[in-house]
Amino acid sequence: MSNPSQGSPRGPAPVCPYLQRTPQGYVCSITQRSVNPFGWYCVFDYMNCPIYIGHLSRMAGVKGPERKYGEDVVIAAEDLSVVFKVGSMFSKKDLYAVDHINITVNRSETLAVVGESGSGKTTLGKTLVGLYKPTTGRIYFHGRDVSTMTDEEYRVYRLKSQYIHQDPYSSLNPYKTVYDILAVPLRANKLVHSKAEEEKAIFETLESVGLNPKAYINKYPFELSGGERQRVSIARALLVKPEFVVADEPVTMLDASLRLEVLDLLLSVQKEMNLSILFITHDLGMAYYMAGERGRAAVMYLGSIMEFGPAKEMLESPLHPYTQALLSAIPEPDPTKSRSKKVMKLRSLDPPNPLRAPPGCKFSDRCPFAMDRCFKERPPLKKIGNTWVACWLY
User: Fold this and answer.
1) For the chain, how many helices (H) and strands (E)?
2) Total domains present in the chain
3) Looking at CB atoms within 10 Å, which of 63, 71, 375, 380 has the fewest?
4) Position 66 in a domain
């Protein structure tokens, strides 16, 4: 097989071991089909080729690690913990931002992660896309342990796992135009080989998020509204054709009139691209809107999962007292219903210091149903129907 990295006036081709050069062009030695190694949409571009993320390893006859999860699981966390050292130089303490979590996100699924501020939602999301390193536990991408990946495989994992930041005002470079902001991931990862391909990719992605390319490519972030900035942030994440996206409270900084518009955009893009989404929010209504049909939801508190299961069932009939408290705290727009609504009274309104979490159930010092056992033993997740709940009441 000749080296496909030579012989092109447009620059070096991706070095793929399964790409064979023939007098008629390039042929994939696995599928025996002609491919264009220079095109942004070429599936056998080494940055997008499923071979490198384990899809075709058995068909190609490549020896490698066995897949731990099925084909439908895009990303999984196994006994995942993230611990930060906090305090002065001489008295460091361990802060468990994520505490022994096990989750999976399936293909084309939305997993809504709900919880108060400081519950570890953002740390979990950033760890799953590789922005933070786990202290203990493992992350699996398409069944492959991320910690044992080669440099090339890890690069593909990072490309295929993208992050949409919460604040569209600070996540965009104020000194660059929209075009330059979107061109950065394409150039940095060498996903395009000409100016024409770059423009085509940027224009098509802007159109997919509802922005007119010609009207926006030369604008700076300060010239855009909050909704437009968030659309640019979403476009930047979608440019590299990800499979898994963490949307970290993407509508929190937006006006109420724009929130539904951005959520509908995410759902539309998810359907078109078969995206798997980890949707982080503190609003149960948003979680229900994004994951209520076919998705799942996880309720986090002080780094641990309190309840996990089908979103519709779990949010309509919650089992854990913490989930019930979150639902009861949602204000009713109808004054009559609001006056008669019973709000769960907690033992304490303030969450405990995460450095001094209760030794038993982390919610025990606030839970109105706490028993002696709750203060001494940490409850494991137990399956009740289709829902997993960590509570000694069950």
Assistant:
1) 12, 15
2) 3
3) 63
4) no
